[in-house]
Amino acid sequence: MSPAARPLAIAITTGEPAGVGPELTVATLRQARERWSSAHFTVLGDRSLLEARAGARWPEAGGAIKIEHHALAVPAVSGRLDAANGRYVLGLLDAAIDGAVAGRFDAIVTAPLQKSTINDAGVPFTGHTEYLAERTNTPRVVMMLAGSGERPLRVALATTHLPLKDVSAALTIDGLVETLTIIDHDLRAHFGLPAPRILVTGLNPHAGENGYLGREEIDVITPALERARALGIDAPGPYPADTLFQPRYLKDADCVLAMFHDQGLPVLKYATFGEGINVTLGLPIIRTSVDHGTALDLAGTGRADPGSMIVAIDAAVAMARHKRAA
């Protein structure tokens, strides 16, 4: 079988075993035969845990779904965290990354994990995004969240998990140009957009109001946008964030670049609740994820909504297909 003809290989890490990740994976893959007939799935996790969460039977898709068994350190109880399983969770992620880097997987989809469990296991851990960058030796990655549909709302972040007091110092001309370059490249390469339009917010209220409310727009953001446009990147701005997220501005946009986490993501999550996803741009591999946490209160109840996981797999399959065709 030629490389172009073989099914796409998608790895799914099932995340925190006490959370909703394992059961969301099972629920989502029940749709695999009809929805993703061009893909095969490798589910990374403890076989007994996954089969238990599957209830009556494991999803069947003509051999297109298999479990790569990784043993829990201790039995998992829904809703009850145990630091003993922290390294198990990290091991799932390591195996998926190694497989993608080696070419065994065309993309990876990650279910939510609990950062505190990994840290309590004695491993310093900030989050999926930072860990993926470290493990793939990628100097800069970009967190982008997105909705679904033909023209989804996409919001990328210039800074991620930083205290608000540190955001201004973290914004540099070079850093913003690199971030815009990554967004522009990946929207072309992995999303099939021939000429991405990226709207850029300011940092301060009213985008600084000509310096009266801060000079970051004048000293950093505007010079970065001028340099990016000189490189052929369509990146207008900076726009006041409180007025940018309106249909009349967004209708011609492919992505919004926000300056900090809680500037862009509340809008995105409100607009895409239940179907939002997280995509890590700039990596040598494709990675998508749900945009929610472990939902310990819903784990084991059967009430967790698989909508975000479905969209995350949709995106991973589409991105891998674009990459293969490039």
Report the end-to-end length measured between terminal Cα atoms: 19 Å
SSE pattern, N- to C-terminal: EHHEHEHEHHEEHHEHHHEHEEH
Number of domains: 2
| CATH topology-level name of the largest domain | Isopropylmalate Dehydrogenase
Write the layout of secondary structure elements.
Blueprint: E1 8-13, H1 21-29, H2 32-35, E2 39-45, H3 47-53, E3 65-69, H4 86-101, E4 107-110, H5 115-120, H6 128-135, E5 142-146, E6 154-157, H7 167-170, H8 173-191, E7 198-200, H9 216-230, H10 241-244, H11 247-250, E8 255-258, H12 261-271, E9 277-281, E10 287-290, H13 307-325
3D architecture notes:
The chain has 326 residues and is an alpha/beta fold. It has 13 helices and 10 strands. The chain has a 10-stranded mixed sheet, with helices on both faces. Helix 8 packs across helix 9. The radius of gyration is 20 Å and the shape is globular.
